[in-house]
Description:
Elements: H1 2-22, H2 29-37, H3 52-57, H4 62-67, H5 73-82, H6 86-113, H7 121-169, H8 174-184, H9 188-203, H10 207-218, H11 221-235, H12 241-296
Amino acid sequence: MIPALVLGAGIGVGLWLLATWVWPHRPALSDRLTQISARPSAAPIVDADDSVWVAAWGRIFVPGLRRLGLPGAAIENDLRITGRGTNTHLAAKGLLAVAGLVAPWLLQALFALSGLSPGVQVPLLAGLVLAVLGFLTPDLDVRAKATRLRRDFRSALSAFLDLVWITLAGGAGVEAALHDAAAVGAGPAFGKIRRALRAAQLTRTTPWDTLRRLGEELGITELAELAASISLAGTEGARVRASLAAKAQALRTHQVTDAEADAQSATERMALPVTLLFLGFLGFIAYPAVIQVLNGL
């Protein structure tokens, strides 16, 4: 009964995904008119690239997953900082889920050819578990990479703040200091900052507004705070050199704290194998005595 229910549910989900891909959802006329009359939103500063073969093989899953509200705002920010496209991410989720669901049945077929038959329940449960793991694996991978890239971005941002502070101390203006500091640095973080400043020039907007948008898109609050501090200097003439130096020092202190926490965590992980080895050694020594006691009872 349970295999039949699961098989029927899987067929229903597959048919629903196929229907959403063949006949995509069409919004109501009132919604379309609202979108046309509304002010167009600004294009994202950071563009993400879609993998051709993943999007091609898994495009059938994209409309249905988007109808479910995936991937979500937090995952979209993580995708922007990693440079992975949303369609690629959703297609990978669908492909890995299907691969995890089908893999146990392929093993079941190999066992059947060799004369072994573990039954239907084992590949069914294993397929469901692997499908769930395959569906969640892209999210976990993107979150881990985004956390690492945000930490690297904060490290580059502290150097960027020092360069801006030095340039301002030399008598340059705010916008000139931002462009000169961004042109000196190298790496993905400085590349994103240069792209934001270039977008500000092309759209004739203030660079601090563009940096604030970049911080919101990437989920880096320190960049938004930097934009707020620089905007005071650009609009009200406030002296922000001391504020920028303090922010750079705070970022470096935060980096040192994170490094110490990582080192402490690594130390604790290294103690686990030693503890297991010690317990195994005690068991090896105590095994003969325990066997003698048990045989004497």
